[in-house]
Amino acid sequence: MIDEQSYVKRNNDVFANDIDGEAVMMNIQTGKYYGLDEIGSRIWELMEQKIQVKAIIDQLQKEYEVSEQQCKTDVLNLLTELKTNQLIEISE
Predict the structure, then answer these.
(1) pTM of the shown model
(2) Percent helix, strand and coil across the chain, each rounded to 5?
(3) For residue 22, what are the CA distances in angstroms to 4, 10, 19, 35, 58?
(4) Would you call 20 exposed, middle or buried from its count of C-beta atoms within 10 A (0-12, 13-18, 19+)?
(5) DSSP letters for 65-78
(6) What is the edge-to-edge ordering of all strands in the sheet holding 14-19?
(7) Can you give the pLDDT of all 92 residues of the chain as single tens digits?
């Protein structure tokens, strides 16, 4: 389970590229492609190095007009989806 105290980072088996400000990724192991919108791409960028989920939420709140609860919900939902698709790694 992912929460604010979890640490996340990109899976090294994922090839990613930026196309017009949006991240497009391919999981090398599964051969599946994924795309992220502008904010999802920003989260992906922040995960270049291992980072705590709370730090991602704090950074996004500085950059975008969003409530803490909405930001937390959206970030955790995206991270759960990325984990399900083996695009990120989670640690405590």
Answers:
(1) 0.93
(2) 40, 25, 35
(3) 24, 16, 5, 7, 21
(4) exposed
(5) ---HHHHHHHHHHH
(6) 14-19, 22-27, 33-35
(7) 899 999 999 999 999 999 888 899 999 888 999 999 999 999 999 999 999 999 999 999 999 999 999 999 999 999 999 999 999 999 98
Residue 41 backbone dihedrals phi, psi, to 5 degrees: -65, -35
Helix ranges (H only) for 1-92 are 38-46, 53-63, 68-84
* C-alpha to C-alpha distance for 71 and 64, rounded to whole angstroms: 9
Q: 14 - beta bridge partners?
A: 27
What distance in Å separates the CA atoms of residue 19 and residue 31, rounded to the nearest whole number?
A: 19
In whole angstroms, what is the distance from residue 85 CA to residue 44 CA?
Answer: 14
